[in-house]
Amino acid sequence: MSLLDTEFDVTCPCCRSTLVIDHGLKRVVRHVEVERADKPKLDDAHDILAQEQARREALFEKSVASERTRGDALSKRFEDALKQAQDEPLTKPTRDFDLD
User: Fold this and answer.
1) Tell me: the pLDDT tens digits for 65-98?
2) From CA 51, how far away is CA 61, in angstroms rounded?
3) Which end of the chain is more exposed for a tag (fewer CB within 10 A), N or C?
4) 14-to-8, 11, 19, 46 alpha-carbon distances in Å
5) Contact 7, 15 (CB under 8 A)
6) pTM higher than 0.85 for the full model?
């Protein structure tokens, strides 16, 4: 597009995109982004989606496996605590009333 007499280009210092500013309107009239080198191609969309699906499936399987072993770990901790409680002698708890 050709620029009008009141328009001029400015390069953004942050993102390196081009801003077209109209001096008469005192505002930005157009913003042109810089093409990124790492921008995915539309032809690769199927491969990208397949990779993301595989990643999600792997995370799900890992979560399922950790939930399965979680029950075993909790039952082992319960059995250890039960054995420790059986080894300790039974004592009558002290109450504030008994201290008087």
Assistant:
1) 988 888 888 888 899 999 988 888 878 878 887 7
2) 15
3) C
4) 18, 9, 12, 32
5) no
6) no
